[in-house]
Design brief:
By secondary structure, this protein is α+β, with helices and mostly antiparallel strands. A hairpin with a 2-residue loop joins strand 1 and strand 2. The N and C termini lie far apart (32 Å).
């Protein structure tokens, strides 16, 4: 069973740092390439750039809950939520056929 996980391409879990602006402040975020790929997909589905999506998400989180303690973790969980929603939509479309 673990071969599925252990055998994946190391590039998927290599980290990458991207610089962007959050509420006018320059910052950098470091995450694994797999998460960046999902964030790029989310942004594309929203018709915006990845930095624009991340900045908008950051603003909305501050408005709803205040400054997040770990914004990078929130981004990773947003990726998981996107995958959950996508899987549920896919299952619903199959069930409707």
């Amino acid at each position: 069973m673990c071969h599925v996980f252990a055998g994946q391409d190391p590039e998927r879990y290599a980290s990458q740092t991207r610089r962007l602006r959050l509420n006018g402040q320059s910052t950098s975020i470091r995450m694994e390439n797999s998460f960046w790929a999902i964030l790029d997909q989310i942004a594309a589905s929203e018709g915006v750039t990845t930095p624009h999506f991340i900045s908008t998400l950051h603003s909305e989180v501050i408005e709803l809950r205040g400054e997040p303690k770990n914004f990078t973790s929130l981004l990773r969980c947003a990726c998981l939520k996107f995958l959950e929603i996508s899987a549920n939509q896919h299952a619903a479309s199959i069930a409707a056929e």
